[in-house]
Amino acid sequence: MPSYTPPLRDMQFVLHELLNVVDELKMLPAHADIDVDTINAVLEEGGKFCSEVIAPINLSGDKEGCQLDKVTHEVTTPKGFKEAYKTYVEGGWPALSCDPAYGGQGLPFTVNQFFYEMLNSANQAWTMYPGLSHGAYECLHAHGTEEQKRLYLTKLTSGEWTGTMCLTEPHCGTDLGMLRTKAEPQADGTYKLTGGKIFISAGEHALADNIVHLVLARLPDAPPGTKGISLFIVPKFLVNADGSLGERNAIFCSGLEHKMGIHGNSTCQMTLDGAVGTLVGQPHRGLQAMFVMMNTARLGVGNQSLGLTEVAYQNAVAYAKDRLQMRSLSGPKAPDKAADPIIVHPDVRKMLLTARAFAEGGRMLQAYTVLQADKAHASDDEDERKDAEAELALLTPIIKAFITDNGWLATSHCMQVYGGHGYIHEWGMEQFVRDARINMLYEGTNTIQSLDLLGRKVLQNNGATLKKFGKQIAAFIEEEGTNEAMQEFVNPLADIGDKVTKLTQELGMKAFGNPDEVGAAAVDYLRVVGHMVFAYFFARAAKIALTKEASGDPFYRAKLATARFYFAKLLPETASLIRTARAGLKPLMEMDEALF
Length: 596
Description:
Number of helices: 18
Strand content: 5-15%
Helix content: 55-70%
Distance between the termini: 44 Å
Radius of gyration: 24 Å
Number of strands: 11
């Protein structure tokens, strides 16, 4: 069975040495009292919960899965899941970053996101039960009426209730303009919803007393397309005016999806048969309200793959140090043993270092991005809020797509390290691969994220936000331009920065002539920009490590080695990506459809 050790030292490096988050957060009125010791203590205790409570039930939960009673429509989760959730709630973990007005602890989103990385490493399927509650909380906090906030936010904050997002229908996934679920107004101001939803994560379970479903549907007078979508709260149990639970609502699980991975999570087909709901926000403007939840979820999905990358790496390293196979090509490294441990072999090291670099790079990017989320939510400076919102919007699709693509590669590499044992369930590695695969699909496939980045976040504002981020990179390059020790990092960073600028301009011109050029280049483009961002953070990390290497702390030597590996072995992928992006639309479209 795999094990998990929270990577607290690297987390502390990113938080306190790379980003100096305490200084940044103290500038925000809501977090003026935050300090290093508080953050470290919270993450240390959170790590214990992850490694001691939910990691031990990950492998068994995958094997057992969820069971649906088709008569009662109740779902039974794997053994230990409900007890773990009770411990989670008793520990106050759901309330970590929630508003104190609703019983929250008011800690920064940045801290919560680091905790969630550990949760995802330990048990992604379990973590999805409380995970979506944060998005439901954010949506209602931003768009709910005072009455809705009073009835729902305290319970979501405490974890007594969980939340879901109900978007997808059998005939439409990302294209929500096609959804058919209907909402009929009632005389008492409520609505009755009828229709069916699929792929609803944590749609039915008994971990919490109630499930707050946020459902997209159409009113009778709705215009066609996305401009006719409204958002509704549809609880599993109706909620009385005093906050107590009423009768069972007519929304129920009619089937469980049989999935490749995340077996421990109940991915449900949901039927609404005249279910009672209340409108969130304005009629026909539900998608805008739901986007609050969706964008939070996209950051969460990137964090899922970051967590899986870290735990897969840890176990693959342990195995590579222990497993004896063959001799080193340059001669025995363990002559007293029957063979050398496989970690001496160059390609094994390449696979391990790839996973390590993707984990460390993803952690830096995630932390920087959620720090912008904290600024966007809590700054009292309007300009700072707007800048943070723009940067958050730019980096969210990169987090969702780049980190999840990397997670798929990393978990596959780590399984490969195990050889045939990696393919066997009891070692846990093949589960990480299967669980990682969904992260590239839900909350908007990675192609959708790529289209969003290039078409909407870059070209739609003539690259203004990307240029602003590029100025940070340029300033760092100028600052380190005469530092001889930094040239191995600064020179390739400057090179990829120039190439991204030129590629963006070229694709913009092509898209002006034919918008389909965006679709042809977007996936390659996002990966190039993702590498540029990783290169920037690895260069900054290398600067710190070079300064502190003389301390004798092996952490900094390892950080430098990982950065050097990244620049030498992973960043060069951008050369082929740029070439294929520039190849454009013609090779994809010139074949007649009949020839496929």
